[in-house]
Model the fold of this input.
Amino acid sequence: MDNCEMCAHYVTDEEFGDYCSIDLDEDEMEKFLTQNVSQCHYFQLYDEYKIVRKQN
Done:
């Protein structure tokens, strides 16, 4: 599984397809696209049970 698919910023949309939802300016986007995605400093693990653990 690709790291992007486990990221909280990764969006699956029927109309636009799969994409990263982080808003980056032009310089940040160039840096993001030229780096290794496995070491993305914007990565945040998507954890659907995070809210449930806080409630308990």
Notes: The chain has two helices and two strands. The beta strands are 10-13, 17-20.
